[in-house]
Amino acid sequence: MIKKFKEIFGKTEAILGAYPMVLVMAFLAAVSAMFYINYDYNSREYSFFYVKFGLVAALGISVMYALKMLAQRIGKEILFQLLGILFLVFFYFLLPKTEERFTEVYAYIIFPTFILSHLLVSFIAFIKKNSEISFWHYNKNLFINLFLTVVFTGILTGGIMLAIVAVDNLFDFNFNGRYYSYTFSFLSIFGSTFIFLLFNEEGLPYLEKNGEYPVILKFFTQYVLVPLLLIYAVILYFYSAKILINWELPRGWVSYLILAYSVVGILAILLVHPLREDFTKSWVKIFSKIFYYTLAPLIVLLFTAIFTRILEYGYTEPRYFVLLLALWLTTVVLYFIFSRKQTIRFVPISLFIFGLFSLIFPYLNAFSVAKRSQKSELLKTLKDNKVLANGTINFDKQISSTAVNDVSDKFAFLAKREENDFLLSLLPMTLRNDYAKDLAEGNIWSFNSIHSEFENVKYDNDHTADYQRMRLKSKTFAADISQYRYLSKIDRSHTSFQFENNTFKVEAPGSILRNNFTVEFNDAEINLLPEIIALFKNTSSIGDKTVDHLELTKKIGPYEVKIIFDAVIRIKAPDQVVEYIIDSESIIVLIK
To answer: Where are the domains of the chain?
Structure first.
């Protein structure tokens, strides 16, 4: 027993000495997650700091591990660690300072960067070394270690959490529920990293060492993965035949199915790479030889599906990435069909280069292309609907509701990408000053209400209409506060406030309301949707209507509460489902 403990602690000491920066990053990521769980809900600035810092630290795990593998190959470990830290500092400041600016745009930066960091792990130690079999064994061992890490971490985390539950219930400790979240966060991040490093033993020399092909991996590839891929290939080819027979455009989602088939197929080819000529089933040999040829017609279908969407709606970041993957697949197929001297390293290295291109290449990266495309699409929509005069929008001209929604979507898209100067230039001077003032005050969501500026919207009211829409707009967004003691402004970032030891919370403006409009007063919930429905009494089913004011008054406990907003929308879908939306950037709450 003592010998076993010494062996375990000996490995622990070796891991701490070999991978200090990887473990530091894992520890910081885990602690950031724990602090986020424990943050004060009124301190949103600090909570976002934990999210941002945790994401950067989590990225640092794979970055530092990749640099460690490179250092084990060529030395200069301290230099690579410093470069890794500089990159992570740069990435931290690349992210926005406030939660309000943390839009989906940053997901298109963070997610690809995480993928690129893991791709870097797969090949960086083999930039100079040409051993194909060592490269394969290295990635095979990483793959197996990752699988084992998931299993071990899951069992360890579940076991410890069950132990906490048992102690809590048997001894009546009444633990705070956050302890379970702390345990899960720490073990799933730091614990999993430590376990993964334990499986790596001494690192690169162990990982690239030739060994026997794992029986379970061989079974999984031959009897599960390859047969499934053959089935999907048949389905995709039958669908291609259907398109040719009916002479119709492919559905958009087929591109994702082709990409999934391609990526998983390439993974299967890589898994059986050492066994292509030895002891494999006949269908695996056949699949290995014909796979890249079967991809060629599907790539044509893939490009057709992609450009069908791009030509109709323009580029967005997701469509750009799908197109880039299609180009990468084409490159891989051409390489493995026509290249005489092939190497499987081409797969991760080429994907890394394409991914890096999409993020940092000037003018042609995903974000530059998407912004230029959507600007062009916005101008085209405005010109086609004849509401653009001398470079500015005439909001008095008649325009269809479909076009208004299209313009609104593109304004929101470009606003999230901080193209405010371009959007302001499209507005008449009277509106430009108001929106510029909102933006200067930090209201980055200001352009979300641009659809409300169109005064002459034509709605379809026949059986083909997507929905019936009625919008009430207040003449003024003001209130007499002389009789009230407390005033608070509710927006998407701040939906609650406190007064006299009470907590008052309202659903954020812009929320879709179907069955309730919930106001929370301490532990009580009050539904104000009936009051909103009453606002639409004696109104037509479609169009816009201006009213003197929009406000709800409710007696809650010892207080009278008045909620004021500047617009509300009622939408009736073809399935008769009715939705309400508070179409206001903010809500004013008065209490007496």
So the answer is: 2-207, 215-361, 368-458, 468-591
